[in-house]
């Protein structure tokens, strides 16, 4: 049997085969060792990274909870401050409206004072005098105009400060809204887990957004808003106190001036009545004297006629006796008696004429003065009527003041932000105290009012010469 031919190719020896097997075994052992080391390192890395990730997530949740507490505390502070601002805005609005009502209430006293001045300008002659009533009325008009100016200034300042409070409230509202949004975002972040469906990879999540602030700036911003609102509220409280005090002081001044004016008016009316009564008495006496003078003038005229007749008789006798003839034309006792009688009658007639002329002049003067007194009496009666009309006009002030003693109704208000008014514990109590100062002629008027639970007292001293 023949041997088959050998196949072409490389044949290895047994030693090579053995070396190859040993090499494969050594390589397997090395790779197994490397794999074991890698596995151990991988397990260690997994444990380490799991712990690190778990700790980081826990620390992040803790920081989120701390941040939520900080933001919530700041949010409560902002809400409390915003409520106080709303309350202060309501109180300032109420005080502003009370000041506006006080300003509107000055229209009637001003109208009454001007009407009294206009009525008293209707006096004529010497009755149109610059008396204390005119001075008091002008002082009252000047006081009311000053009151209107001061109250209007307070109203304007209150309106401007309401705008400041509204701006502070707007800043607080914006900051509060930001805090609420931040709370919502942080709470949603705190609620996320690795199983949440909303998580995903984002592009460059570690970037710093524009407009970012640090914690100090964040805290200072809210503190600035709160401090600004608190300062505005402090100014508003001071403004409300000033307005309340100004209203009471001006009302006291107006009441004092009104009493002084009414006292001067009553005093002037009394003087007018006295002057009228005196003038009426003088007119009656003058009329009686004129009647007596009229009778005396008639008597003087009758006596003058009698004396003239006697003079005619004496003249006639003398003239007739000039016709005696010869030696009978003698200047005898009869002649001397007639001449003396003529001289006496002529002197008597001259005296009677002078006295009659003097009586007639006096009568004319009395008539003229009587007409003047009648004219002045009519003026005095007209002036007295105007004084009475002025007093009746000022009675409207007394009716208004008695009506104002009823407690005012507090109507719910709405501030400039459009929010409904809050419950304001606002009460006003007026107490009038009258005290006689020992050893003086002065009266002390004290007024106490209670505003928001705080007592305030104001005392005005008025002399008795100004009031009745």
Instruction: Name the helix and strand elements from N-terminus to C-terminus, one letter apiece.
Output: HHHHHEEE
* Mean residue pLDDT: 83
Can you name the CATH architecture of the domain at 289-323 and 331-385?
Up-down Bundle
**What overall form do the CA principal axes indicate?**
rod-shaped
What's the number of helices? Answer: 5
- Strands ordered across the widest β-sheet: 1-2-3
CATH class of the domain at 289-323 and 331-385: Mainly Alpha
Radius of gyration: 59 Å
Largest sheet: 3 strands, antiparallel
Distance linking N and C termini: 171 Å
User: What do we call the CATH topology of the domain at 289-323 and 331-385?
Assistant: Methane Monooxygenase Hydroxylase, Chain G, domain 1
Strand fraction: 5-15%
The portion of residues assigned to helices is over 70%
Explained architecture:
- With 468 residues, the chain is mainly alpha-helical.
- It has a domain at 289-323 and 331-385: Methane Monooxygenase Hydroxylase, Chain G, domain 1, CATH 1.20.58.
- The chain contains five helices and three strands.
- It has a three-stranded antiparallel β-sheet with strand order 1-2-3, covered by helices on one side.
- Strand 2 (442-451) and strand 3 (454-463) form a beta hairpin.
- Helix 1 packs antiparallel against helix 3 (132-191) and helix 4 packs antiparallel against helix 5 (333-403).
- The termini are far apart.
- The model is unreliable at 406-468 (pLDDT under 50).
- Keywords: Cell projection, Cilium, Coiled coil, Cytoplasm, Flagellum.
- Residues 388-405 have a biased composition (Polar residues).
- Residues 388-417 are annotated as: Disordered.
